[in-house]
Design brief:
With about 210 residues, the chain is mainly α. The chain has 10 helices and no strands. It folds into 2 domains: about 55 residues, Arc Repressor Mutant, subunit A; about 140 residues, Tetracycline Repressor, domain 2 (Orthogonal Bundle). The N and C termini lie far apart (about 65 Å). Pfam families: TetR_C_14 (PF17754), TetR_N (PF00440).
Length: about 210
């Protein structure tokens, strides 16, 4: 549907506030910036900020709903004959090639991760987002398989897939924070991704057998 003038102005105001907030957060750190400073930078009142964003953390996670929907989109876009694990394997490896932001591989992701790591409230929000992404993917898996609401398998599969992508992203960010260039990180990250998704595809029954 065509966006009306009022809706467009509201969207633009919301985006301006969020962009100004992120600029301040990236420069000074999340906990060192107040909502009043964000309002001044965006040339709006504090009340206006809270009209669009319920909490300060919402300013940081202004695209939360979109981010939470991404795993479901990967699942639904899988190719004919392709399993859920293979779809995420293909999508992640492609993201390594393009430094896809959807997995936190873009330039500057290390600055973002450092800011989150320094703020307990942002760490809590990131855990919440991860949990909601898992729940959304599990629901989509259950829906496609017509599984019962209390069936464990969709939740287990969603948790394994998204934990794998999160750990792979963390691996890349840690090396970036240590000062390594992307050119040396990417080949190892691709190999780690192939190994991780290989484990998911083959199962972990034979993993760490005591000799």
């Amino acid at each position: 549907m065509e966006e009306g003038l009022r809706e467009r102005k509201k969207r633009e105001t919301r985006e301006r506030i969020a962009d100004m907030a992120m600029g301040l957060f990236m420069t000074r750190g999340f906990d060192n910036v107040t909502v009043a400073e964000v309002a001044r930078a965006a040339d709006v009142s504090v009340n206006t900020v809270f009209n669009y964003f319920r909490t300060k953390e919402d300013l940081f996670a202004d695209r939360q709903e979109f981010v939470e929907s991404l795993p479901v989109e990967v699942l639904r876009a899988r190719e004919k004959g392709e399993s859920a694990v293979r779809a995420f394997r293909r999508d992640f490896v492609a993201a390594v090639e393009t430094r896809g932001w959807q997995y936190g591989l873009q330039d500057g992701a290390d600055v973002f991760a450092k800011m989150v790591g320094e703020s307990p409230s942002l760490l809590a929000r990131m855990r919440e987002i991860h949990q909601q992404r898992e729940e959304a993917l599990a629901e989509a898996l259950a829906d496609e398989l017509d599984a019962d609401a209390d069936e464990l398998a969709p939740r287990l599969v969603a948790a394994q897939i998204l934990t794998a992508t999160r750990l792979l992203s963390d691996y890349a960010v840690r090396r970036s924070l240590a000062g390594e260039p992307w050119e040396t990180i990417a080949p190892d990250l691709r190999a780690q991704a192939e190994a991780a998704f290989g484990l998911l595809e083959s199962g972990i029954g034979d993993y760490c057998v005591r000799r």
